[in-house]
Specification:
single chain; about 400 residues; alpha+beta; N Utilization Substance Protein A, Chain:P, domain 4; GMP Synthetase, Chain A, domain 3; 4-stranded mixed sheet; 16 strands
Length: about 400
């Protein structure tokens, strides 16, 4: 088995990147255990593999003593002198004890050790490759799913997509190609375990980096991301170059760039806003598409009071408070939204008489015929509208989201 083993180790070293010396050391340790187990020997032994010929030898290590208490571990001075007259009491003598049929044991052990080391080395290579891909995006193929996980093939390893990380509006089928965000890579006894997500805000950021060259080149910077996966997201962008339109770069010609991301996220709506170090401008932009009349900042409490036109209150708040909630996460500021009428009553912002009616008329223009036909309508409708638009306030109090900058 000598030269054949060395040739096999050489091939492994070139193909798998596993050092020959590393496997030989492991093989020697395994052969020592195999010798003690198969030949009922408990003494100290050492296995030596000749890296030139591949031959294997087993040596028993015994201490030179005046009186033997355990013949398996000790040897007298007279016996030691039979091997070398230079030995003295306290020295260690190595005596070859290689069994005749040790080759059979060695072959079986070598197979097990080499297989184990190759598996460990491959796991190590995969772990080292994917640990560098944490917080990155990859394309995988859905292989199978059970009640807890969807298993995504990333090429060399199978990743886990848990229920909490799946988008609620998506249905996954075998052989579907999907983009996933790698959230964590763990080293386990069964090899590296990769956890991926479809709901992480980082997925949205990486998709923009892929679709928008200006972001990839560093000309446009993504400052923050807030996301409610499968429904709506907001992203703030900024460019230090005044000649570059950060928002326009992300939208693309006829919206092609952002549309590609929307398609990948199965129709998730995306608001792209301009970032500003001025909280007044940033909060105003973050509440888009609602128009903002005034923003009052309270730096001490990290909060803002926003005044919007009466007819835009529901738009600023959003469905189930979503627009305001996403804006608060995006900016990191608490947002208290009030309409103009309520703000004027509280003395927060002056209300200009007649301006509200003009804004309402601009927001919902109607034909003259329609207005004339509805002149005889009961005034109760007007009272209901007034009651609705004078809703007192809507407050979003939320912890700032972690900045997604790398």
């Amino acid at each position: 088995m000598g030269t054949e083993l060395l040739d096999a180790l050489t091939v492994l070293e070139s193909e798998k990147g596993i050092e020959k010396d590393f496997i030989i050391e492991a093989l020697e340790a395994a052969l020592e255990s195999a010798y003690k187990r198969n030949f009922d020997q408990a003494q100290n032994v050492r296995v030596d593999i000749n890296q030139t010929t591949g031959s294997m030898h087993v040596y028993a290590q015994k201490e030179v003593v005046d009186e033997i208490l355990d013949s398996r571990l000790e040897i007298t001075l007279e016996q030691a002198h039979e091997y070398n007259s230079a030995f003295a009491v306290g020295d260690t003598v190595e005596i070859e004890v290689t069994p005749r049929d040790f080759g059979r044991v060695a072959a079986q052990t070598a197979k097990q050790v080499v297989t184990q080391r190759v598996r460990e080395a491959e796991r190590g290579i995969i772990y080292n490759e994917f640990i560098d891909r944490e917080d990155d995006i990859m394309t995988g193929i859905v292989e199978r799913q059970d009640s807890r996980f969807i298993y995504v093939n990333l090429g060399k390893v199978e990743a886990i997509l848990s229920k909490n990380e799946q988008m609620p509006n998506e249905r996954y089928h075998a052989h579907d190609r999907i983009k996933v965000y790698i959230t964590k890579v763990e080293k386990t006894s069964k090899g590296p375990q990769i956890y991926v997500s479809r709901t992480h805000p980082g997925l949205l950021k990486r998709l923009f980096e892929i679709e928008v060259p200006e972001i990839y080149d560093g000309l446009v910077e993504i400052k923050s991301v807030s996301r409610e996966a499968g429904d709506r997201s907001k992203i703030s962008v900024f460019s230090s170059d005044p000649e570059i339109d950060a928002v326009g770069s992300c939208v693309g010609t006829k919206g092609q760039r952002v549309q590609a991301i929307v398609d990948e996220l199965k129709g998730e709506k995306i608001d792209i806003v301009e970032w500003s170090e001025n909280p007044v401008e940033f909060v105003s932009n973050a509440l888009s598409p609602a128009q903002v009349v005034n923003v009052t900042v309270d730096p001490t409490n990290q909060s803002t009071t926003v005044v919007v036109p009466d007819y835009q209150l529901s738009l600023a708040i959003g469905k189930r408070g979503q627009n305001a909630r996403l804006a608060a996460k995006l900016t990191g500021w608490k947002i208290d939204i009030k309409n103009e009428t309520n703000a004027a009553e509280l003395g927060i912002f002056p209300f200009v008489e007649g301006a509200q009616a003009d804004k309402e008329a601009e927001a919902a223009p109607v034909e003259v015929e329609t207005v004339t036909a509805e002149v005889t309508a009961e005034p109760v409708v007007t009272e209901e509208v007034v009651e609705e638009v004078t809703a007192p306030t809507f407050v979003v109090d939320i912890e700032p989201a972690a900045n997604t900058e790398e």
